């Protein structure tokens, strides 16, 4: 599935869901690597799902559409991760935030700022980086994650 206008609907049956669909994590990260931030929206209850899912986690409907999302938003919650997974331990402490994008979809991600420099309401912009550019050892990747980019929020 490559179209992301409001008429694009998700896979209505399990058989229609393929491994490279934008409604799967590999498909989501493929789109992100191509510079496209995609979310699903349930047309029954209006819930946004980011990364996209083939069915709404709020109401269970499979009536979902894909749309490209803005990369800007504001911090609605944040914390510090002092003992991250091995691949990220050299980056500790890591500031992680829930960001409400300008579309109202929410995405959790690392923020390139110390915890004490961040506040609720701060404007941020999503950047997509190659894992090696961030210093993440490719040996830590699972086989299906090898080509996945890393997303980081920068203060706007």
Count of extended strands = 8
Distance between the termini: 32 Å
Give the percentage of residues in beta strands: 25-35%
Strand order of the largest sheet: 4-5-6-8-7
Largest sheet: 5 strands, mixed, barrel
Tally the helices.
2
* Percent helix range: under 10%
Q: Please give the radius of gyration in angstroms.
A: 16 Å
Q: Catalogue the unreliable spans.
A: 1-5
Q: What would the principal axes of the Cα set say about the shape? A: globular
**Mean pLDDT, all residues:** 85
Q: Which class do the helix and strand fractions yield?
A: mainly beta
Order of helices and strands: HEEEEEEEHE
Summarize the entry for a quick read.
This protein is mostly beta strands and 156 residues long.
Give descriptors for this structure.
156 residues, mainly beta, five-stranded mixed barrel, three-stranded antiparallel sheet, 2 helices, 8 strands, globular, disordered N terminus
Give an overview of the whole structure.
It is a single chain. The protein is mostly beta strands and 156 residues long. It is built from two helices and eight strands. It has helices at residues 25-33, 131-134; strands spanning 38-42, 48-49, 64-68, 72-81, 94-101, 106-111, 123-129, 150-155. The radius of gyration is 16 Å and the shape is globular. The model is unreliable at 1-5 (pLDDT under 50).
Secondary structure elements and their pairing?
Elements: H1 25-33, E1 38-42, E2 48-49, E3 64-68, E4 72-81, E5 94-101, E6 106-111, E7 123-129, H2 131-134, E8 150-155
């Amino acid at each position: 599935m490559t179209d992301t206008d409001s008429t694009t609907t998700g896979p209505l049956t399990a058989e229609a869901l393929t491994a490279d669909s934008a409604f799967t994590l590999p498909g989501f990260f493929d789109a992100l690597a191509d510079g496209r931030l995609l979310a699903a929206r349930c047309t029954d209850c209006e819930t946004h799902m980011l990364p996209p899912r083939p069915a709404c986690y709020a109401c269970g409907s499979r009536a979902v559409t894909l749309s490209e999302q803005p990369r800007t938003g504001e911090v609605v919650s944040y914390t510090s991760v002092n003992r991250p997974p091995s691949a990220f331990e050299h980056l500790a402490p890591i500031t992680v935030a829930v960001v409400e994008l300008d579309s109202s979809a929410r995405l959790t991600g690392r923020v390139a700022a110390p915890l004490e420099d961040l506040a609720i309401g701060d404007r941020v912009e999503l950047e997509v980086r190659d894992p090696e550019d961030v210093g993440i050892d490719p040996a830590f990747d699972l086989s299906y994650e090898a080509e996945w980019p890393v997303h980081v929020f920068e203060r706007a």
